[in-house]
Structure formats: C-alpha cells, structure tokens
Design brief:
Organism: Fusarium oxysporum f. sp. conglutinans race 2 54008
Protein name: Amidase domain-containing protein
Strand order of the largest sheet: 1-3-2
Family: Belongs to the amidase family.
Shape: globular
Radius of gyration: 18 Å
Number of strands: 3
Helix content: 40-55%
Keywords: Hydrolase
Strand content: 15-25%
GO molecular function, one term: hydrolase activity
Length: 135
C-alpha cells in the first residue's frame, strides 16, 4: 500500500515533468501540435495497444482531439518487400497490418494545445476542418 508521502512524491515528479514540458513549449513558441494519433490507419475496435502517441498529453494534462483525414487505407496494401523491422514492436505492427484488413480506415491526426488553452485547440480544429474538408 502506498502512503500519502509516496503519493506526494509521485505527484511532485509528475508536476516537475509538466513544468519542464510547458517550458519547452514556451521556449519554442508552440501554439498547437499536429501529429499522428496512431502508428497507422485506424484499427479495429479494442485492438489498439500503442498509446504512446496520445498518452503523453494525458500525463501533462493538455487538451487534444483526434480527427480523421480524407486519406484512407486501401485494401490489399502491403509492406515494401525490402522492409526490415527495427524492433519487435515494428515487427508486431507489420504483422497486424498483414493480418488485418484496414481498407477504408482513415489515417487520423491528433491536435494538442497547451494546458488550459482549449480555445486555441478549437480554433486549430476549425482551421483544419476547412483545410481537410471535414464536415
């Protein structure tokens, strides 16, 4: 069982990380980040296991949204025959791709803003809605 002191230490570590993360954004004058939300196109329900694309923003408590793009996977797409996986994780992703049917699945993006800057996130989403012709 964890004590109140243990919990306080973990919260301090988290808050120190959040502070360093916020400083990095400020030093680089970042408004929002647009990046991948997953390792590939949307996967079948309950099969996602790579949370690293989005979980960081949960830790730092930054608002974010995941949006589909007009880009869709086509049925029958295959990996390059010369592809050599860099790790077991890369091999696992390739195996999932080869075993599954991602035909029609969208490639999605995540848009993230600073903590308490939800309105900037909504503004960026409005711009992307127009750029990507989303409804």
């Amino acid at each position: 069982m964890h004590t109140a002191v243990d919990l306080t230490a973990v919260h301090k570590e988290r808050d120190d990380f959040r502070l360093a993360f916020a400083k990095s954004w400020s030093d680089q004058d970042v408004d929002v980040i647009i990046g991948p939300s997953f390792v590939g196109p949307a996967c079948a329900h309950d099969t996602a296991f790579y949370w690293t694309y989005t979980s960081l923003y949960n830790l730092v408590d930054y608002p974010g949204a995941v949006i589909p793009t007009p880009i869709r996977a086509e049925s029958g797409e295959v990996y390059d025959t010369g592809y050599v996986p860099l790790s077991d994780a890369c091999r696992h992703v390739r195996d999932l791709w080869e075993e599954g049917d991602f035909g029609g699945a969208p490639v999605s993006l995540q848009v993230v803003a600073r903590r308490y800057h939800d309105n900037e996130l909504f503004g960026a989403l409005r711009v992307l809605k127009d750029v990507l012709n989303l409804s």
